[in-house]
Write a structure and sequence with these properties.
This protein has 245 residues and is of the alpha/beta class. The protein has one domain (2-244): Glutaconate Coenzyme A-transferase. The chain is 27% helix and 22% strand. It is built from eight helices and 14 strands. The protein has an eight-stranded mixed β-sheet with strand order 2-1-5-10-11-12-13-14, with helices on both faces. Strands 3-4 form a two-stranded antiparallel sheet. The longest helix has 17 residues, at 228-244. 42% of the residues are buried.
Length: 245
């Protein structure tokens, strides 16, 4: 999952990075296939080159290893809202079939209290303004749901014209990369469809782990296995993170 997410950043110039799984993939991309990639974090750091995986948005190493540190309003006003960032890289607690994201609250049913989540952060602005958005998350029916309990961040709304109606600058989610495969929006309906499987994974397994009736592309590909170089770089990042914590 992380390796294929990193590969998806090939050719990108600037990436607005979410903490967690997106940060692992973005830092792996910079260490392998895209060393010139400029990583931008919500804390105001531009050109971060951390030696380990960042632990939080306010992680001091993000600033220590950055080319520049600016105010949060400048990050959002000058870089993000002006359309100067190629790719937004986000995680999610829930996504639905149109790649809308929930990171706010989980509805546990009438007899249980709502489950509170971390909240929006900068994700709504990232998804609205970056050239396009990549998403990475574990593939379970708990995470991929028919309809999100709360729309924190708009993906493709309710269909292909939702973003245009709202006047959003960016093209929205272009791929959802999970531990089972890759989903992409159908060009006509904007609904996520399965386009690639990771080695050894079947369509039936992916469908069983998806909360809606998942459609597939006409020709489903298979992702290439991680190379030794990619695995070594990822292990080094994770090992350094464990030492720091």
């Amino acid at each position: 999952m992380t390796v294929n997410a990193a590969r998806a950043l090939a050719g990108a110039t600037t990436c607005f990075v979410g903490i967690g799984l997106p940060s692992a993939a973005a830092n792996l991309a910079r260490r392998t296939g895209n060393p010139g990639l400029v990583l931008i974090y919500e804390s105001g750091t531009i050109g971060s080159k951390p030696t380990r995986l960042p632990l939080s948005i306010g992680d001091g190493e993000l600033a220590e290893t950055a080319d520049a540190v600016v105010s949060v309003p400048e990050i959002f006003n000058y870089w993000l809202q002006a359309g100067r960032i190629d790719v937004g890289f986000l995680g999610a607690a829930q996504i639905d079939r149109f790649a809308n994201i929930n990171t706010t609250v989980i509805d546990r049913g009438p007899d249980r209290p709502e489950g509170r989540l971390p909240g929006a952060g900068g994700a709504p602005e990232i998804a609205a303004n970056c050239g396009h958005v990549l998403m990475v998350l574990r593939h379970t029916t708990r995470n991929l749901v028919p309809r999100v309990d709360f729309t924190t961040t708009l993906g493709h709304g309710s269909g292909p014209d939702s973003r245009a109606r709202l006047g959003l600058r960016g093209a929205g989610p272009s791929a959802v990369i999970t531990d089972l495969g890759v989903l992409r929006p159908d060009p006509d309906t904007a609904e996520l469809v399965l386009t690639e499987l990771h080695p050894g994974v079947t369509v039936e397994r992916v469908r069983a782990a998806t909360g809606w009736e998942l459609k597939t592309s006409d020709a489903i590909g298979t992702t290439a296995p991680p190379t030794e170089v990619e695995l070594a770089a990822l292990r080094a990042l994770k090992a350094a993170g464990r030492v720091q914590t």
